[in-house]
Specification:
The protein has 7 helices and 9 strands, in the order ααααααβββββββββα. It is an alpha+beta fold and about 290 residues long.
Length: about 290
């Protein structure tokens, strides 16, 4: 076995130094005799695994050949090929095969990575599309709800406005709420609608006439109490058409006059929530869908 290993080592050196082998080719081959190791191969386990291209006997036979013929196939030997060159060619072929296998592996790995990346991108695109769709649906739902609320509010205000009325059909505002001057002891507590004497005065909303009569500086006055307790004062009337009982929106309850402390014919109107202090009639009418 030691001698067989030595021959194999010499064969490897011959493959690496192909130039040196060319010189050996010119000399006659040195005969090498080996003992019969056929019985040994049967007794050494794993020996066949050391030479995958043939049996132990074939390997030993090849190793017993002249150095210039070691590692040659029958065809190579018949063609007179140099052993070192043949071995180097085999090594080169093997290296090329390994390189090709490595490149193939790298290419397959890159292709697999590309497929995985494409799959991830497709999944992300699908998730994003689903998220966009959900967001769009939510936005559409929000807009629909907003539009529904807007329409409901418009309908409410329209219905509310229909249940209220401005006290005169034709008028000119001459004094506003909170105005100060010599005409009032403090500030103006209502809104003055200037109109010709005798112009019909309407109920601004359904309610009950709770008071009607002379009221000093207010002249002839009608107090209309609404369902929520708000009192509407109609002052300086020339006449009172309704002095008690219930009325509905737009009913004529009196007529414009110049009674009491006045400088001309007009309707002085006050709005007193709960019968307390007066508030700005312009703002109150606006809250109920009416502009003056």
């Amino acid at each position: 076995m030691a001698r067989s290993g030595a021959v194999l080592g010499v064969g490897v050196i011959a493959a690496v130094g192909a130039g040196g082998m060319a010189t050996a080719k010119d000399r006659p081959p040195a005969p090498i005799s080996l003992p019969d190791l056929s019985s040994v191969t049967d007794k050494v386990p794993g020996l066949d695994s050391l030479v995958p291209d043939g049996s132990a006997e074939e390997t030993l036979a090849a190793n017993s050949a002249p150095l210039t013929q070691a590692g040659l196939t029958t065809d190579e030997a018949a063609q007179g090929a140099d052993a070192g060159e043949a071995l180097r060619a085999r090594i080169m072929r093997q290296a090329e095969q390994q390189q090709t296998a490595a490149e193939l592996h790298d290419r397959r790995t890159a292709e697999e990575a590309a497929r995985e990346k494409a799959a991830e991108a497709a999944a992300e695109k699908k998730r994003q599309a689903a998220a966009d769709k959900k967001a769009a649906e939510a936005e559409a739902e929000r807009k629909a709800e907003e539009e529904a609320r807007r329409k409901a509010e418009e309908e409410r205000r329209a219905k509310l406005a229909a249940s209220y009325a401005v006290p005169l059909s034709s008028y000119t505002l001459t004094s506003v709420f909170g105005e100060s001057g010599s005409m009032w002891s403090s500030t103006h507590t209502g809104l003055d609608f200037a109109a010709p004497s005798g112009t019909p005065v309407k109920a601004v909303h359904g309610g009950t006439v709770t008071e009607a009569g002379w009221a000093g500086s207010y002249g002839y006055r009608i107090i209309l109490t609404l369902d929520d307790g708000t009192e509407i004062w109609y002052c300086h009337l020339s006449s009172m058409t309704v002095t008690s009982g219930e009325v509905t929106t737009g009913d004529t309850i009196g007529r414009v006059g110049a009674t009491g402390n006045v400088t001309g014919a007009h309707l002085h109107l006050e709005v007193r929530p709960g019968g307390s202090d007066p508030v700005d009639p312009t703002a109150w009418f606006g809250q109920h869908g009416k502009s003056l």
